[in-house]
Amino acid sequence: DDFQLGNLSHRLGYQVVLSPYIVEHILAKVKLIDLFDRQIRWARVVKVERFWGYLGLIFTQGTVTSLVFLFLTHFSIYGQLVVLITWSIRLLMAYIIGEILFKDSLTKKHLIWIFLRDIFDFIVWTIGFFGNSIQWRGQRFKLIGNGRLVIVN
Question: How far is the C-alpha of 28 from the C-alpha of 118, rounded, in Å?
């Protein structure tokens, strides 16, 4: 796990730096359930390692939280304005990062999917709170303190 590698290196007195290089890769076709299991695994690992940081991720969930706000305000003009501003900024941020910063030519083509991905991420984040077991390479594990895994039979 990236966090554990960086954290343990830092504790030993080494400096942890991010590479200035962008690694390009092509994702293999995967089943939706496998993608979901992987995302849940990552979410639960983060939750176990840094619970308060995981809880703080609610502030990165603008797409969904703005919709919740819209419902709570009974579709008021203020609620609609919050959704419009939040979603516009979200699209702009995705465009700037994907198209301008990373020069990814597919960004514009897939930009509209960002909202479905945000909803998917919110569902994963929510489910990540419940339970401490994960599926990894066909085996079930229980997460315990410090990011350690115990095989579940």
Answer: 21
Tens-digit pLDDT profile for residues 10-57:
989 999 888 888 787 777 888 888 889 889 988 998 898 889 999 999
- 133-136 β-sheet, strand order: 133-136, 139-144, 148-151
Please classify residue 132 by burial: count the beta carbons closer than 10 Å to its beta carbon, then call 0-12 exposed, 13-18 middle and 19+ buried: middle
Question: CA–CA distance from 142 to each of 42, 70, 79, 107, 126 (Å)?
Answer: 13, 38, 41, 37, 18
DSSP structure class, residue 98? I
Q: How far is CA 38 from CA 11, 13, 138, in A?
A: 28, 31, 11
Asked if 52 and 141 count as a contact pair (C-beta separation under 8 A), the reply is: no
Identify any residues that bridge with 148 across adjacent strands, giving them in sequence order: 144
Tens digit of each residue's pLDDT (9 = 90 or more) over 58-72: 999 999 999 999 999
- What span, in angstroms and rounded, lies between the C-alpha atoms of 106 and 25? 14
